[in-house]
């Protein structure tokens, strides 16, 4: 690890001021589950390290102005233990409880997971499905952009050197909306995502799919929405047998996304089971199971 100057601001304003001052010569550490490894292995060699772990003002989950707002320093354990998340955002809850180990969940933050932009990141897939945006703060003010626009690929996001991600936000989920999420890993615990499926559905009064988002994780350089699967789902009756008839199309979507990757063999099979679990969750949330 290359020597560096360590900073521990206690307010967001102070952190943003430091970012404005040091910009390209600094690294930001939240829980440190990813960045510390990069520092140890010299993948990053900053002159300054800014720890934002003391910024308690960025730890929250709240409903405000028709939006669900999650502070960037909210940990996965915070999400797991939050009654609102468990009751109102079951897909986010499912995401949180299956992130790494208890130690990782205690330290890992929603902001760090998003900014790290890993192909196997847990929360970005779910956040895209919820239609989330990120709030980025700098000395110039706030900038808001969708998760889809923010994530540029493995380890690459649209955050600027002088910006700090302070929040993820998305519209409140209504009684006629539901989101399902299912992750496939190579083992039951400490599992890195090898495939994730997340589906958002809004229903009509006669229980048909009015609108939807279908997102596949770990089959592209970032969480991938599938326009073909979304078009297929729209107008479908929200019944298990009808929804299950679409499962072969998920195999086709994976095959098209990674036709020559060795993992396509098991991902194109596993995706049907993951999508089916999402459908079951959605039907249950809508009282149709």
UniProtKB/TrEMBL annotation:
Give the stretches traversing the membrane. Answer: none
Q: Which Pfam families match?
A: CO_deh_flav_C, FAD_binding_5
Which residue windows are coiled coil? none
Record's InterPro entries? CO_DH_flav_C (IPR005107), CO_DH_flav_C_dom_sf (IPR036683), Diverse_Substr_Oxidored (IPR051312), FAD-bd_PCMH (IPR016166), FAD-bd_PCMH-like_sf (IPR036318), FAD-bd_PCMH_sub1 (IPR016167), FAD-bd_PCMH_sub2 (IPR016169), Mopterin_DH_FAD-bd (IPR002346)
FAD-binding PCMH-type domain location, by residue? 1-175
> Which PROSITE patterns is this protein grouped with?
FAD_PCMH
| Keywords of this entry | Flavoprotein, Oxidoreductase
The record's section on PANTHER family has: XANTHINE DEHYDROGENASE FAD-BINDING SUBUNIT XDHB-RELATED, XANTHINE DEHYDROGENASE SUBUNIT C-RELATED
**What name appears for this protein in its UniProt entry?**
Xanthine dehydrogenase family protein subunit M
């Amino acid at each position: 690890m290359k020597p560096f100057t360590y900073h521990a601001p206690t307010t967001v304003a102070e952190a943003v001021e430091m970012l404005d001052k040091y910009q390209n010569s600094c690294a930001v550490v939240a829980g440190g589950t990813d960045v510390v490894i990069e520092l140890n292995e010299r993948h990053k060699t900053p002159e300054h390290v800014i720890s934002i772990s003391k910024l308690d003002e960025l730890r929250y989950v709240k409903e405000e102005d028709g939006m669900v707002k999650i502070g960037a320093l909210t940990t996965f354990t915070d999400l797991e233990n939050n009654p609102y998340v468990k009751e109102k955002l079951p897909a986010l809850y499912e995401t949180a409880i299956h992130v790494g180990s208890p130690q990782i969940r205690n330290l890992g933050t929603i902001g760090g997971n998003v900014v790290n932009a890993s192909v196997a990141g847990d929360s970005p897939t779910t956040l895209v499905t919820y239609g989330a945006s990120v709030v980025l703060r700098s000395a110039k003010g706030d900038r808001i952009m969708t998760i889809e626009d923010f994530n540029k690929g493995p380890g690459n996001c649209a955050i600027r050197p002088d910006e700090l991600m302070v929040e993820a936000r998305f519209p409140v989920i209504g009684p006629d909306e539901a989101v399902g999420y299912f992750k496939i890993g190579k083992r039951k615990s400490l599992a890195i995502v090898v495939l994730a499926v997340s589906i958002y559905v809004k229903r009509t009064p006669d229980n048909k799919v009015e609108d939807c988002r279908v997102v596949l994780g770990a089959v592209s350089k970032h969480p991938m929405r599938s326009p073909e699967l979304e078009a297929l789902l729209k107008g479908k009756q929200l019944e298990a047998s009808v929804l299950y008839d679409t499962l072969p199309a998920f195999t086709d979507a994976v095959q098209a996304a990674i036709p020559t990757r060795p993992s396509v063999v098991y991902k194109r099979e596993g995706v049907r089971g993951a999508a089916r679990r999402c459908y079951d969750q959605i039907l249950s949330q809508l009282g149709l199971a």
